[in-house]
């Protein structure tokens, strides 16, 4: 009996993924391309981004230098994508930074401004210009923003990162009705700890050390959360499998934030 052809969940779609030269963004770019999408990797890590695009295949993947804190570069990336591929169906706003790592009493507000510029300004710019392009072409697109479990539970990230990721979810919630009027969906993904180059640089740890630490904290045992798991969540939100899902924060944490909240509530009852 002949094997059935694989289901390509994004066949004919065009996607931009910011911060896709490594980590979760890279895993998502590879998965989207494997499911038939043409992908633009938007990042500031030029050598890495170009290498990832080449390894995926330059017929289906391109690299575009894009600093998301510069709105003009985001707008140019959207324009480049539409001109090259003829449309824009998916925007995954994923670029981020971890620092600053100081607590609020020692927080350098200039560093806080930088974190907000990347996460909040960058997300707002990505949503703004992707939505404009989708509206102009009548595309029932999907916009995905990478948030974090730090936006759901305190002490899961540095204060600046926690503030920024709360704002990312705020952008999604604030935009859902406006974009919905044009048939555009917008959602967030909030992962637990993943051993990416960014998270490893945060504590100067190896990927194995980051994974071990996250596994110690995890509620769901026997599974190590990796970038590929988060990419699968992005694939679901990008595809027609989620065509009536908008305004949702898809948490990929093995139940950790639920368990922490339950434990706090139980302790309060006692």
UniProtKB/TrEMBL annotation:
Superkingdom, natural source: Eukaryota
Sequence similarity: Belongs to the short-chain dehydrogenases/reductases (SDR) family.
Protein name: Uncharacterized protein
Organism: Dioscorea zingiberensis
């Amino acid at each position: 009996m002949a094997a059935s052809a694989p289901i390509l969940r994004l066949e004919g779609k065009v996607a931009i993924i910011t911060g896709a030269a490594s980590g979760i963004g890279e895993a998502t770019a590879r998965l989207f391309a494997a499911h038939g999408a043409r992908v633009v990797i938007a990042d500031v890590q030029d050598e890495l981004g170009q290498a990832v695009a080449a390894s995926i295949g330059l017929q289906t993947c391109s690299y575009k230098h894009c600093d998301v804190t510069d709105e003009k570069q985001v707008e140019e990336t959207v324009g480049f994508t539409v001109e090259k591929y003829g449309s824009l169906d998916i925007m995954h706003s994923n670029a981020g930074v971890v620092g600053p790592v100081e607590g609020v009493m020692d927080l350098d507000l200039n560093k806080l401004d930088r974190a907000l510029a990347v996460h909040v300004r960058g997300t707002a710019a990505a949503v703004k210009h992707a939505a404009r392009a989708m509206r102009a072409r009548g595309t029932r697109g999907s916009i995905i923003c990478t948030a974090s479990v730090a936006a759901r539970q305190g002490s899961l990230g540095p204060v600046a990162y926690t503030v920024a990721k709360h704002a990312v979810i705020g952008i999604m919630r604030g935009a859902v009705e406006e974009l919905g009027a044009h048939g555009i969906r917008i959602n967030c993904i909030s992962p637990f700890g993943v051993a990416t180059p960014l998270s490893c640089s945060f504590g100067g740890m190896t990927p194995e050390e980051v994974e071990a630490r996250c596994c110690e904290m995890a509620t769901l045992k026997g599974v190590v959360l990796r970038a590929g798991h988060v990419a699968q969540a992005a694939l679901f939100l990008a595809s027609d499998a989620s065509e009536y899902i908008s305004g949702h924060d898809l948490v990929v944490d093995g139940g950790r934030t639920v368990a922490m909240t339950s434990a706090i509530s139980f302790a309060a009852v006692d």
